[in-house]
Amino acid sequence: MTLAAVLCCAMTTTVLTACGGSDDSGNVPGPDKTPVAGVMEAKFEVSEDIIKYLDVTVEYYDADGSVKKEQMDKTTWSKQVKAKLTAKLGARLSMKVKDGVDVRSRSSKDWRCIFFNNHHG
Predict the structure, then answer these.
(1) pTM of structure
(2) Is 35 exposed, middle or buried (0-12, 13-18, 19+ CB in 10 A)?
(3) Cβ atoms of 79 and 89 closer than 8 Å
(4) Which of 31, 45, 56, 60 could staple 114 via S-S, CB 3.0–4.6 A?
């Protein structure tokens, strides 16, 4: 029984010593590293045929959070937006067949659209 009491006291001392600590160690918390701003980089790339036969519109969030629209008249479009967090960041592409164009009769097979997107703080 004496051995059990000694082991119990030894384990209690170890636990209390391991959990104990002092705030006087001189450790000062570092600066807050939470991001306060973010950057969205977006790029759309489409084929010549898409520009030729479709009206292409890009919608994206501007730095103030408002939705902006731009007509895409070249095969590439890119935008970089810097905004304070918490911000809405993003871009999307919409396409509509141009008036008077029947895409079903087109023999083109190049209907390519590529989207590159990068968000970072």
Answers:
(1) 0.60
(2) exposed
(3) no
(4) 45
